[in-house]
Amino acid sequence: MRFGIVTFPGSNGDHDALMAVRMGLGQPAELVWHTETDLSSYDCLLIPGGFSYGDYLRAGAIARFAPVMEAVAREAEAGKPVLGICNGFQILTEAHLLPGALLRNASLEFVCDWVWVRVEQTRTPWTQRLVPGELLRLPIAHGEGRYYVDETTLKELERAGQIVFRYVTADGRVTADANPNGSIANIAGVCNGRGNVVGLMPHPERAFDRLVGGDDGLRILASVLDVGLTLARSRGVR
Amino acid sequence: MKETGRWRAEVFVSLRPSVNDPQGLAVRDGLRRLGYDEVEDVRVGRYVQLWLRAADAETAERRVASMCEQLLANPVVEDYRFVIEPA
Predict the structure, then answer these.
(1) What is the pLDDT of residue B1?
(2) Given an 8 Å threshold on Cβ–Cβ distance, is B22 in contact with A106?
């Protein structure tokens, strides 16, 4: 299956994602420039981290209007798996492909660390090989990762099963101390109603091998193989 | 057909009152440390000036409101207001 990695001016996680998919999963992956308008030849899309367009105005606000985003929206609408990582998550919320918004960390500090997240939802193509309640250790690196939705929307997300990951302690408890950025309800990742579009602040692509500190992130990327390989076969690709 | 005018808009964007503003809290605490004990609350926002062409003030206002909704503010977390004057 082919992974498309959407790259904007200012993306910096694109090559990490490329390496994780090629080396970690052994699957073909290509960088797709932000001016591209046809993404139909890819079986899934990654929107990587970084500072697209310098994060001017708001993180993700300008990237949302890049030509490639119309194609991303089209593929998402068609049900193709889309994963937004860090800045990619911010872009997907600005594009209204995911609910909520990501605000300045409560601490006002850029946070670069390893965190524990608990898997809350396994109906998405990006988590279907995981077990509900299991813990993953993943790196974070962001200044604007405080997930926010209003109380009504939060209840709706909980009810609809759209909360995918939460920040927890090493023994799996949701506490204020385990929350690195002040996100509401310790939310680290969410999905759209259908589940094919997922966004998260931690970097699974930076945890694809024990050599780089851990390989829990690879399990998220590997989950998409089930849906992705089916899509690839339907395109006539082995 | 009215003559097209040139307008200047000043747009003020701020986090909604219900949204925590840690930047504002940090500035508030800084002001208090400087002795401004009377400061009760601070909210930090964004200020945008823009110049545009429009037939009349109403059209200019409608266009600027639309710009705020689509790009200048994020309606999920931010409020905006603006003033328009002939440039």
Answers:
(1) 46
(2) yes
CB-CB: which of B20, B22, B71 is closest to A61? B71
Q: Is residue B37 part of a domain?
A: no
Residue of B71, B72, B77 with shortest CB distance to A101: B77
Note whether A103 contacts B19, CB cutoff 8 Å: yes
Query: How many angstroms separate the CA atoms of B67 and B57, rounded?
Result: 15
Give pTM, 2 decimals.
0.93
Q: Is A203 a catalytic residue?
A: yes
Asked whether residue B52 is assigned to any structural domain, the reply reads yes
Q: What's the pLDDT at B4? A: 80
What pLDDT, in 10s, does the model give residues A162-193? 999 999 999 999 999 999 999 999 999 999 99
Query: Complex ipTM, two decimals?
Result: 0.82
In chain B, DSSP finds a helix count (H) and a strand count (E) of 2, 3
Question: Is A96 a residue of the active site?
Answer: no
CA distance A142 to A48: 13
Please judge whether A182 and B76 are an interchain contact, meaning their C-beta atoms are less than 8 angstroms apart: no
Sequence ranges of the domains in chain A: 3-234
Cβ within 8 Å of residue A230, ≥6 positions away: none
pLDDT at B2: 54
Domain annotation covers residue B72? yes
The pLDDT value given to residue A238: 59
Domain A3-234 classified CATH 3.40.50.880? yes
Out of A44, A86, A142, A191, the active site residue is: A86
Q: Which helix (H) or strand (E) holds A220?
A: helix A216-223
Q: Evaluate if residue B3 carries a pLDDT over 70.
A: no
